[in-house]
Specification:
The protein has about 160 residues and is an alpha/beta fold. The protein has one domain: 3-Layer(aba) Sandwich (Glutaredoxin), CATH 3.40.30. Helices cover about 35% and strands about 25% of the residues. The protein is built from 6 helices and 7 strands; from the N terminus they run αβββααβαβαββα. The protein has a 7-stranded mixed sheet, with helices on one face. Helix 4 links the parallel strand 4 and strand 5. About 25% of the residues are buried.
């Protein structure tokens, strides 16, 4: 029993020290049409915002609505909205909380079908937002509420 408890404490300690990747990691997610989308498909020359969201998460709903309201500040940022949700519920989410955001030219909605986002990017809460520079360096990480407000200060510089 002591060994089991020690292993659990060690695991929790390692998780607490885990940090988000400072360089944009390799990944493969899927567009809603089923086509694969990887880090190699990211449009070059702009900042890249990756947002992990859940359609039923109230924080995600509020932050996505705020992103939509402040879209003008993000029009020069590639926005990748990633979810583990099933494809049928995703359009309902956008229609309810951020109508039209998912059809903007710089917004790509992706599904994490293989559940690789969390072990790759190590977010702590929904929504998790990762802003990477055009060269792929992490500029801002936020999890939970308040991410869009923080991002506005960085993207408006």
């Amino acid at each position: 029993m002591k060994i089991f408890l020690s292993i659990i404490i060690l695991f929790i300690g390692l998780q607490a020290k885990a940090q988000q990747p400072t360089l944009l990691p390799q990944f493969t997610f899927y567009k809603l049409d089923g086509k694969a989308f990887s880090n190699k498909d990211i449009k070059q020359g702009k900042k890249n915002l990756l947002i992990l969201f859940d359609c039923t998460c109230e924080h995600c709903q509020r932050e996505t609505a705020l992103l939509n309201k402040n879209y003008a500040s993000f029009k020069n940022v590639n926005i990748y909205m990633i979810t583990l949700d099933e494809a049928y519920i995703i359009p309902q989410f956008f229609n309810s909380y951020a109508k039209g955001l998912n059809t903007k030219p710089n917004v790509t909605v992706l599904q994490d079908r293989n559940h690789t986002f969390i072990p790759t990017f190590l977010p702590t809460k929904y929504p998790a937002m990762f802003l990477y520079s055009a060269t792929g360096k992490l500029q801002l990480y936020n999890s939970g509420d308040g991410g869009i407000k923080k991002l506005l200060t960085v993207v408006n510089k």
